[in-house]
Design a protein that fits this description.
about 25% strand; about 500 residues; 22 strands; 18 helices; 12-stranded mixed beta sheet; alpha/beta; about 40% helix
């Protein structure tokens, strides 16, 4: 172990003790987060409207403060964007993570307070390093730099607005610039391909030991690096690379592609759950397939099951819930649109279970993202395929034909045959979802497969201002837009 790694491990020791505390005393720590939020929110416009100064218990909080989604919380955000102070958080908020979503607006503007910048998002990134160092004591990851592929940001009416990654890079350049690559001006270049070309010129000679970011965009960057260098795999470019901290989308569809580009048993991966609304969890145990819920980042959690909303101590292992947060970014009882399943309640561990609005239930099949990912993984294994991206939508029934699902797929590596792939995908879907299997005997045909050319989804995301592909939609709006965008859609049934 190098001296630098030894020093970092010593620096992380107090933080490891704090993590152990909330593992052992989760409800005490969540009570502290709740009290802290009430204290800071009392003198805000939001706090005065809902009487936060007279709320003393979680039950009172649930009774007096309604739940929000983006549409219902938007009037508060608009006041902050106009420069008004003390709206839902003390002072003026000048940082905003702009993200696309499934709301009625094309873009959402999520406030990023200075406190959430440091006590939530940045603290989460530090914990990634701390927990990785604890799990890999002989690591030399701190001897080099982490290549962070972010988005872009710009000033809008006195506010810094953009992708969360770009806002964080811009605001923490003094703190993190010395161990992160590329340089901040390169990292926030708006055009993706111009940014990647600049990264190639700037970072090929750097000692890169880790990557961080969204898998789909990093995969495209790696392809460009190989074109630029003429190398066969990424480890020939950066031989010290050992770690990839990823988040934003489910990693399963990308894993095989990464393993081919990074062919080493010493390459390690850590899933993180770092959304525009906050940093929520990370995979602290490399032997598990779930993530530790981080309880001391200034977030008080609630969870919805149907019409029933419970705090953390009310959740049940094995059940999926929609997540609500009251957080130091000025969001109150805010449903972020994600569902999580609790895999453990001692300590609290979760796995991402999909978006609350990303599902297909047109025919009573109740297909969710987890089903789709698992079925796709099995179909790829059985046919030798690798899928780069996919999106699924219903094909509606008519008097002449049954209903079906259309799978729009971009292959990283094509299967042995499209017919075999389609058969195996159908078989796997029926294996993982009994409702789908039942409907296949009555109202549903085998899925329709549409193949798009390499790069189609990436170009579509860039054109639509998105950083992730909607996996399952209960209507055809997204699918039809993907199909009509550009050229190169081939139908196979």
């Amino acid at each position: 172990m190098s001296l630098k790694n030894t020093l970092f491990r010593a620096w992380f020791s107090p933080r490891m003790r704090a993590i152990d505390r909330f593992r052992r005393h989760p409800h005490i720590v969540q009570e502290e987060m709740f009290r802290g939020m009430l204290e800071r929110g009392r003198e805000t416009a939001f706090g005065k409207e809902y009487g936060l100064d007279s709320i003393h218990t979680v039950a009172q909080f649930e009774e007096r403060v309604p739940t929000f989604d983006y549409d219902s919380f938007k009037p508060w955000v608009e006041r902050m964007l106009r420069g008004e102070r003390n709206v839902t958080w003390p002072g003026r908020v000048t940082l905003y993570a702009r993200s696309s979503g499934t709301t009625s607006d094309r873009s959402k503007y999520i406030p990023v307070t200075r406190r959430s910048l440091w006590m939530n998002h940045t603290k989460g990134m530090r914990d990634v390093a701390a927990l990785y160092a604890a799990s890999h004591p002989r690591s030399r990851v701190f001897d080099g730099k982490t290549l962070t592929l972010g988005g872009s940001c710009s000033l809008e009416q006195g506010n810094l607005v953009g992708d969360l990654s770009a806002v964080l890079i811009h605001e923490t350049k003094v703190f993190s610039g010395w161990f992160r690559a590329p340089r901040t001006p390169t990292a926030i270049i708006p055009d993706f391909y111009e940014k990647v070309d600049a990264i190639c010129r700037e970072c090929i000679g750097e000692k890169i030991t880790a990557f961080a970011g969204v898998p789909s965009w990093n995969l495209e960057m790696m392809r460009r690096v190989l074109e630029y260098t003429g190398k066969e795999n990424i480890l020939e470019v950066w031989p010290d690379l050992e770690f990839f901290a990823h988040g934003g989308v489910e990693f399963t569809p990308y894993r095989r592609s990464f393993e081919e580009l990074l062919p080493s048993p010493d390459m390690h991966y850590m899933e993180t759950y770092n959304a525009s609304e906050g940093f929520f969890s990370l995979a602290d145990d490399p032997a598990r397939g779930d993530m530790l819920l981080m309880l001391d980042y200034g977030t008080f959690y609630e969870f919805r099951d149907g019409d029933n909303i419970v705090p953390l101590e009310g959740v049940v292992q094995g059940k999926a819930y929609a997540m609500l947060i009251t957080s130091n970014n000025g969001l109150w009882r805010y449903e972020i649109g994600d569902k999580v399943e609790f895999t453990s309640v001692d300590p609290y561990r979760i796995r991402f279970a999909g978006r609350t609005r990303q599902y297909i239930n047109v025919f009573g099949e109740e297909l969710i993202v987890d089903n789709a990912d698992r079925a796709l993984r099995r179909a790829c294994t059985r046919t030798g395929a690798m899928v780069a991206e996919y999106s699924v939508a219903p094909c509606y029934m008519s008097l002449e034909k049954q209903g079906a699902h259309e799978w729009i797929v971009e292959f990283e590596r094509r299967p042995d045959s499209l017919e075999h792939f389609s058969e195996e995908l159908d078989r796997a879907l029926r294996e993982v979802n009994s409702d789908y299997d039942a409907k296949r005997l009555t109202t549903l045909e085998r899925q329709h497969l549409s193949e798009v050319r390499r790069g189609h989804f990436l170009e579509w995301m860039r054109a639509r201002g998105k950083n992730k592909v909607p996996r399952l939609m209960n209507d055809r709006r997204v699918a039809d837009d993907i199909r009509t965008f550009g050229e190169g859609v081939t139908e196979y049934r």
